Amino acid sequence: MPGSTRAFITNNLRAPILFRPGSALDFISSRPLGGAGAIIIVLMIAAALLANFFAPYDPLANNYGAMFEAPGVHHWLGTDSFGRDVLSRILYGSRTALWVGFCSSLFGTSIGALIGVSCAYFGGKADLFMQRLMDILLSFPLIVLALVVVAVSGSGLWNVILAITIPMIPRAALVVRSSALALRQMLFVEAALTLGSSHWRVISRHMLPNVMAPYLIMLTAFLGQAILLEASLSFLGLGVAEPTAAWGLMLRGAAVEFAERAPWMALFPGLAISLAVFAFNVFGDSLRDALDPKLRLP
Amino acid sequence: MVISIKAIMSRGFILSLLAIGAPAVLPAAEAPRPGGELVFAVGEIPPSFDGHRETTFGMLHPIAPHYSTLLRFDPQNYPKIVGDVAETWSFSRDGLTLTVKIRKGIKFHDGTPLTAHDVKATYDKIIFPPEGVASARKALYSMVDKVEAPDDLTVVFKLKHIAASFLANLASPWNFIYSAERLKKDPRWYEKNVMGSGPFIFVEHVAGSHWVGKKNPAYFMPGRPYLDGFRAIFIRDTAPRVAAVRSGQAVVEFRGFNPAARDDIVKTLGNKAVVQESPWACNILVTLNNEKKPFSDARVRRALTLAIDRNEASKALAQISVMKYIGGVFRPGSEFATPPAELIKLPGFGKDINAARNEAKRLLKEAGVPEGFSFVLKNRNVKEPYEVSGVYLVDQWRKIGLNVTHTPLEGGPYFNDLRQGNFDAGVDFDCEFMDEPDLYLLKYLSSEASPVNYARYKDATLDELYERQSRMLDVKDRLPLIRQMERRAIGEQAYQFPLLWWQRIVPHSSRLKGWKIGPSHYVNQDLRDVWLAP
Hints:
Chain A is built from 14 helices and no strands. By secondary structure, chain A is mainly alpha-helical. Chain A has a single domain (30-50, 81-291), classed as Orthogonal Bundle (MetI-like fold), CATH 1.10.3720.10.
């Protein structure tokens, strides 16, 4: 093998960098924006897990002696119309955001991946039918479909997760199917079938692991969308209910009503949402760049 | 029990007789100016168009201008009762027969004459609804034996017994007069259609968007209405509704805003804003499912009301919502209101909240309710003042070690759950069109006797007290029974209990004239006296 070819393969067609030791540092140094996103995500996760320690106040405790208090020494980000500490509610709110985000993107992407791979594997009328069904679901904007699901199932944490999961399924299914179509023609799939493997075994053991790259990219990209969607649903009064600490909910109602008197009530939760969505988006983009060999070709 | 004719006549009957047919008196300084379209905002959508079955202002505000009622409250001299389609009325000497004479020449919007037969059909539907037809206030007319229409202009109400609230109930703003012919063909026709004899004719309804009415040129009162028409725009959220009034898109929102919204509107409109305020005949009522454990135990219910710091609530929540006054079953300031000295004796209405919460914890322990016990508080997903109340209650109950999940629902599913007993605790309300014990106490009768009591209990003592006070016409005779009923319902048994009473605040454009605020947002909504300044 000529030296230049070997170098090309070494540099460009190596295994995805995230799966190598020390890859996190490589990732941050080679993609600083994605690295910044990753750091914010890690901080968010830490804030969510350790909210009990970091939060200066109980996020649900009303304090009518401190209603609409401006940011200051006692309340770094101020208080809301019930005298609740905004910082504490943002920290606890990251739990809601991440829980809804992780659950819905995990369920949506996983179910979508399974449908996509199955469609690619079986092909024929089943594939045709499923693709038209996915087309119908895709024709609805994300928020509209989520609103329909919440309107039918009602509000509440798990219904919100369901509402966000359903619109994500067809999006994941389409992307994964296109990757899996090529896999279906691979010799190792033919070999597995020839050896008598069941359909489920071929799909689960041979095809699904080989679509992990697009799966992971979508998982991170959908996380940002899911957080935004949860905030949107809560803002519209269809997500989680007061007094739960949730970013979208903090933007709703009193924050709008008292926007002039206490702008911090809307400002800081809004910043938290923007930062989280930004972090997941740039991290997802960088992850796609890192995992997609085609994007690394000169 | 002896009831004198003097007593019958003392309960506002004389006032109302003197006021028969008197039109509302408007300030002489400002001559009404005809013309223009009134645009107003409504924060709720009408579930149906039938006033007899609905209980929300979302139906009443856009639809009341299309209908007449038998009697009405004089908006300029509330709660004086005057005639609407009724010209005169008189009781028999024994007080058991009311004869009402109908005005001549009143026509429905389709051109057919409105007669006593239409009034009879209307009240038959309200008092004796056919199977499958809902009548929300049927129980208020239990004293009526039958309604007769001996001729086209005479309606006769035969009563089983004397009832203090009967005449006021005939002035109920919900009792739209319907066409007998339409009701005969389909008793539910009015749920989806509009055809009355009121000052405005129905033009258009776009669901969730707006409702339009135009002037009825054949309205029976000469020169009314002043307006050419009206347009009600439906805006559910408070912030855009405030913005609509602030920007001039709407002239007014008749139900009312909180103090912050009032200040916002006044700040923007300056001297073009007018603010009318009044104590409101509405409260937030905490309803418990008395059939469910542990709420079937009076100790637990008392603990729940003891835990609420109403003194703090009246100061704090008044800044962010319409809730303001501490009161018992009756509107504070009204003639039936609980005297302060008696009120503080009721659990949860005292001055020492720490002692009350310690007592609450003791009661819970005694009843075997464990620390951290969880239950669900169902609520309407209407921010003002329901969600505010929900957040407050959750916080108060956490302070005695209870873990409460707040679940706001759309109006339909919420009331459905309450009616079917599918709840632990609920944020209910009690809004009435006048300060009349029969109206407020109806909420506290045994659930099977009261369609508006969702607390699911049976209490023969309360039912008996209600009946006794209802048949007394002298306030002095009624008060001891009323107090006894109140002590039992929200004190000893604490089946359900008020959180706070509301303050009605209506900031509007100075262009709106001829409309006067009252303690009820149900009254004075037919718009016949309203006019617009240039």
